[in-house]
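Bug report (template v2)

What were you trying to do?
Predict the complex of my protein with beta-D-glucopyranose.

What happened?
Run completed; filing so the output is reviewed.

Input:
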Amino acid sequence: MAFNEEQFKEIVTEFTIDGERLHEIAASFRQDLQLGLRDVELSSMRMLKSYVGLPGGKETGEYLALDFGGTNVRVFRIRLDGGGKYEIVKRVGRPLIVPGEYDYICKDATAEQMFDFIAELIDEAIDGNHEQKFYLGHTFSFPSTQTNLNNARLIIWTKEFATQGVEGEVANDLLVEALKRRGVNNVEPVAVLNDTVAVLLSAAYKTPDIFIGSIYATGHNTCYLEPSIHDPNGVGLGGMILNLECGNFMKLMPNRFDREYDEGSEKPGEQRFEKMVSGRYMGELFGMAIAELLGEKGKKYGLTSVDMSMMILDESEKLTKASDIIMAKVGRELDFEDVKKVRELAKVIVIRSARLVASSFVAIVWQRAGKGKIVHQHVAVDGSVYEKMPLAKENITKALSELLGEDAGKVDTILDNGGSGLGAAIAAAMAVQK
Ligand code: BGC
């Protein structure tokens, strides 16, 4: 069976954002940002205070860093040497879910089980040493309300996490209780921060002219340094970093696939922007579009963004790899023209995602510039989609230049690999050395 040409074109159009629409989205994002700065209730984004500004670069000493925000939990011992230098002394990590063995992110898992698992990993990172004092920075990558740098109350799970007893609770309290249960009383959490904030701290520690940090991975979110906010409970320079939680940005037009996916998701109505752009969801949208083309609407194939990436990378004459993935996941042997179309579909979904992400960066750049000139700057980004997904970075760059016009040369994106861990250590140092 060959795909219906008209239907295919219509689906491609659904996922295409032209230049005019791109400008509208960036403008609407900026407006939402401005509304939120006036009164957070007016914005669709949460715009959460982090109680931390930029590091001064003189942060030093050895710290523990816990990176908890995706399906892998990691713990590092990091020595900060100041002046942008650091060394990872030890690194341990484990997935929160191993199919058939355990699953700490499903509905049946409890907060206790999840945090006991994390405490065990921390114990491994300190080699069971229960004597020496360790200060810990905790990157907790979910929307959380903070009243100071060391206290973050989870508002709502995202990224399809569903563990009971964590929403509404203070993450570091759950961690301290788990550490106590394990007899680890020498590890003191002193800072908790979103992964976007960690990336911004990490990048700014090493490189000047960075005010925006973003994660483009399983989930998506961005933070920036807001110069007008200062708080006696805060540390750091230049104002306060705001965690936008822009995955929740709502003022944009979802297509019918976006709407349908959202309705059947773990949290309908939440994280609409994230569900259009991040790695956790691109494969789902891709699968839905393929099902429609195959006349199997509603069927799930378990396609992931990694599958999309491998298909896009397949430039072989016969598209062998792409065909194999379709065979393995969709269970069909498609003819060459249809495999080409499926690959095309993967591309348009990735390109849409990159353009949307770029439009949010530009909105923040505009907002920070206000009526003044846009300054030279880098937007620090970490995450597998940014790093590994073909077409993602180049389409961000292209969209930045479409939106910024003559200022395009002033703004670029840079990869800050592993910023979630380093940023947590920097935040711990800032808390201890303030
Ligand atoms: C969370 C954010 C996080 C982002 C990237 C989103 O689902 O709400 O807090 O920064 O994922 O990990």
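What did the reviewer find?
The chain has two domains: 1-50+195-419, 55-193. The longest helix spans residues 336-369.
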